[in-house]
Design goal:
elongated, Rossmann fold, Alpha-Beta Plaits, cytoplasm, 4 domains, 10 strands, five-stranded mixed beta sheet, Stage 0 sporulation protein A homolog, DNA-binding, alpha/beta, about 525 residues, about 60% helix
Length: about 525
């Protein structure tokens, strides 16, 4: 609902305008009356008014002067001039003073009502716009902490950004990064043991403790990976400031541990002497954080701590070879040992070297997986997700364990595929034998060529899957076929020998007696 003020020095007009139309139907719940501009101004300064209908010629303060003051002090008030024809030029002049409209007197009730409907529509639109802008400003104020963090994250953590644009945005949020020197630190919390419900609670608590320890002078925000980044500001630079920040991080880490028993690894990067160097300082802090893989978590590391590590990279070529071999032969102990040695055989290595070894192992495992058929999407996803997991591991032991689990799963898949594939090879060879047993030249070599495998592989596989060797299986097939022919035909023994793949009838008789305990002639007579 709106509030109306009618200002006119003539009581008849003042009261007449109030009563001539149904103001409540137009949305007005309260109407004030004033005899002159000064009284109107006093009422407005003490009450909320949306619309002012004012005459021009009034004592003490006329309508134009009132309009000018309202335009400066209350620009949101909608002012309408009530004027006679002889004052029309003044009414036109009032437009330049911010007056929204003017109405010529005298005016009847119907025409006044129509005019006010039009004015109220404008008032309603303007009011909605003001409410929307006010709502947006309120939301902006509520969102300011989040917007500040997002802006700081963009300036510090992103390499590809318009630094000047974001510095200007930061300044509008009362973040001045253009002056002073900054130390950049990262706090990495060990949250893996917590349930999803407790995860956010402990993260929030750790952030609050950090803020309480640092105060308002320094900037704190998340880098998008549940790690807290600190911009430690100082007007002076030097080793003392770096040492002070180191001691501060040690104090924060101890406070977090004592208060909520949350292990925290902290890292300090290189000093940033300008806003342009903040991203480099952040990246160097991330590099220092990698010390947790070599030296352990729950400590405070300085970028200078990396100096102790080997300059050259270690490549685990031998260990990778042993790992793949262990997978293929199904030796879980060898798999575990190979993964462990890949990270430790090179001695003390940098976090970057550890990451390289990790990626090499994941890539090698996926390569082995790609050679298998019918691998589930779940296992493929597990493998590809490993590329994203690295920074989530708390220690080398944790990533070793995950790699071991994935490698063992590949081993299981490989054994399953090999078992199915082996049976397919055996079935194909047996079918080949049934179609070619009459050929006296039929051999293991021919069968291996038919199955597209090596003789050695087929020999071992045939023994494993069939419980007998290839030669005995072929002989057994020929014997069963010869028995069938002896029972169902009048073929002579030597004819049956040739028919079942024997080039020597005498050898056929020896083999037949060995298989049945009788010569072919004895078997035929008995049968």
């Amino acid at each position: 609902m709106y509030t109306l003020l009618i200002a006119d020095d003539e009581p008849l007009i003042r009261n007449g305008v109030k009563k001539i139309i149904d103001w409540e139907s137009l949305g007005f719940s309260k109407i004030f009356l004033a005899e002159d501009g000064q009284e109107a101004l006093d009422i407005i300064r003490e009450n909320h008014v949306d619309l002012v209908l004012t005459d021009i010629v009034m004592p003490f303060m006329d309508g134009l002067e009132l309009s000018e003051i309202l335009a400066k002090e209350f620009p949101q008030i909608h002012v309408v001039i009530l004027t006679g024809h002889e004052e029309f030029e003044y009414a036109q002049k009032s437009v330049s003073l911010g007056v929204k409209n003017y109405i010529l007197k005298p005016i009847g009730a119907e025409n006044l009502y129509k005019k006010m409907v039009q004015i109220c529509e404008k008032l309603h639109i303007e009011n909605k716009q003001r409410q929307y802008v006010s709502s947006m400003k309120n939301q902006l104020r509520q969102s300011m902490p989040v917007l500040r963090e997002q802006t700081l994250k963009k300036i510090v953590c992103s390499e590809n950004r318009d630094i000047n644009l974001y510095l200007a945005r930061a300044k509008n949020m009362n973040i001045d990064l253009e002056n002073g020197t900054y130390e950049v630190g990262i706090l990495d919390f060990d949250l893996e043991k917590f349930t999803p419900a407790d995860y956010d609670l402990y993260l929030f608590a750790a952030q609050n403790i950090t803020r309480e320890c640092l105060g308002e002078e320094h900037y704190i925000f998340e880098d998008g990976k549940d790690r807290v980044v600190i911009l430690f500001k100082s007007d002076t630079a030097g080793a003392d400031m770096h040492d002070i920040f180191y001691d501060t991080l040690c104090s924060i880490q101890k406070t977090i541990t004592d208060t909520i028993q949350l292990k925290t690894t902290c890292a300090i990067g290189e000093t940033a002497y300008s806003a342009n160097e903040l991203n480099h300082a952040y990246r160097s802090a991330k590099k220092a954080l990698e010390c947790k893989y070599s030296l352990g978590s729950d400590a405070v590391y300085d970028i200078a701590d990396l100096n102790y590590l080997e300059k050259s990279f270690y490549y685990p070529g031998t260990e990778l070879h042993q790992l793949i071999k262990g997978i293929k032969i199904g030796d879980e102990e060898q798999i575990h040992e190979s993964i462990n040695q890949a990270f430790h055989a090179g001695g003390s290595i940098s976090g970057k070297n550890i990451k390289m070894i990790y990626i090499e192992i994941v890539t090698s495992l996926l390569k082995e997986l790609s050679e298998l058929k019918e691998v589930s999407e779940k296992i493929w996803k597990w493998g590809f997700d490993l590329y994203q997991y690295f920074e989530g591991f708390r220690s080398v032991a944790d990533l070793e364990e995950e790699l071991y689990r994935f490698a063992c799963e590949i081993c299981i898949q490989m054994n399953s595929v090999q078992a199915n594939s082996g049976m397919q090879v055996i079935d194909k060879v047996k079918d080949f034998v049934m179609r070619n047993y009459k050929n006296p030249e039929l051999s293991l070599s021919m069968a291996a060529e038919e199955a597209s495998v090596s003789m050695g592989y087929l020999s071992g596989l045939f023994k494993k899957e069939s419980g007998t060797n290839f030669v005995k299986y072929l002989t057994d097939v020929r014997m069963e076929k010869s028995i069938q022919l002896l029972r169902t035909t009048d073929m002579k023994v030597y004819e049956i020998a040739y028919e079942t793949g024997f080039s020597n009838p005498h050898y056929f008789s020896i083999s037949f007696k060995k298989y049945t305990g009788m010569t072919p002639s004895e078997f035929k007579t008995k049968d």
